[in-house]
Amino acid sequence: MHIDGNTRVYAVIGDPVTAVRSPEWFNALFDRNGVNAVLIALQVKRGDLATVFAGLKTIGNLDGLVVTMPHKNAMCELLDELGPAARTIGAVNAARRMPDGRWQGDMFDGRGCVRGLLDQGHELANRSVFLLGTGAAGSAVAFALAEAGVKQLIIDDVDADRSAAVAQRVKQVFPAVDVRTGKLDPGTVHDLVINATPLGMKADDPLPFEPASLAPSTLVVDVITKPVVTPLLEKARSLDMKIHSGNHMHAGQAVEAARFFGLKI
Amino acid sequence: MHIDGNTRVYAVIGDPVTAVRSPEWFNALFDRNGVNAVLIALQVKRGDLATVFAGLKTIGNLDGLVVTMPHKNAMCELLDELGPAARTIGAVNAARRMPDGRWQGDMFDGRGCVRGLLDQGHELANRSVFLLGTGAAGSAVAFALAEAGVKQLIIDDVDADRSAAVAQRVKQVFPAVDVRTGKLDPGTVHDLVINATPLGMKADDPLPFEPASLAPSTLVVDVITKPVVTPLLEKARSLDMKIHSGNHMHAGQAVEAARFFGLKI
User: Fold this and answer.
1) Contact between A43 and A14 (Cβ < 8 Å)
2) I need a surface site. Which of A61, B15, B160, B187 has the fewest CB within 10 A?
């Protein structure tokens, strides 16, 4: 990688940022495509978002931002315009300067997840999915799974109101999909069970759910990228179950966000 | 170079930044010293400095800034504390977050220039120097040359008040040095003649002075780094005169500023 005065700058903003993988994904993409650009990680505390964004958006060669926790929702308020996924979910994970100077945000978590699953050969049409976690990433994944044509989508969250609201909104947009809230029932067979909670990022986190309680045919999916193989995936693998790590989702996301930034990738 | 979520971030802020060499100097330094850090160039318009700095200084993993035109003077107002060179010159070219969270600035243009000259084997003690340009870089160079023990320092600027003020301040601090303002007189032999004006950055700039009018023994010095060989140096070289490019000054500066940032370099 070569950085000079003509390098276009992108940043992922979040707190903490020590575990973010965006710099690796994006810089590898820029490198492979011969684009003179760099993406760095910036640690921005929750209360500093407005001040930092006011500064960053006036920088002439800073063209786009990847937005991660805890700013995915709050960032919506600061942007001039939201794309369709961001409007529906109420959260963004990418923002860009438009030719007229205004800033627009959109959400690529969900499409990245679907792209990652399909790229790894996992069909989604007519499948049954259980999704745990309906924060910004989980909500986006719910919409994208429905859009991809799953047959059934059961969602759960420690915040029951939040999962109910997400189920209702997904159902409104995709009435053909059987969307509801529910608990993970060991007696029910799902084709995919997805962890979209943060459980697994810290070494002493409990498992978000127990893979041993699932049918052995279940594909166990995690959206966490660090560690690449979470304790959940480790356990599922030790039970000879199929696993799918957060890396695939985020690799797909990086391509979609880089194109959103206007780069030829 | 590898950038991840633990990479410490530095930036050079200026406008324009297309010609800045700091990313190359600093990133090579970081790489050689095994430091997980990156320096990027950010284009910050004159009127946006306060807004951008308010944002940048709250970013947790952004530890220091290199400050270039047109912000070297204005930046002083925004910092909590100035180092001795910055206080004397009224300009900074580097700023850092201190352990207590306050931001301190200092000026390394002059010391970088002296270090570069000495590293290339050019003695300064008891030499006679003509210096053209007393902006932030030129003023810093004037102080550092006096500090390095030149015998005589004649300075000139299109702004006669500015060069008179700089001469007076240098004289106050280094009374043993013969410091005065004056024009470049073809009849007078100087050991070094230094261009510290921006003339030579743009392709159609006139030469800051005519090397053919100088004694053939003169060392012709330019502080401009892009192009590395300015039209002034090109002309001097074609006359078989010794030349010294801005690169040497800036390589020295990068080391001094990186240490100021607290890096083990």
Assistant:
1) yes
2) B187
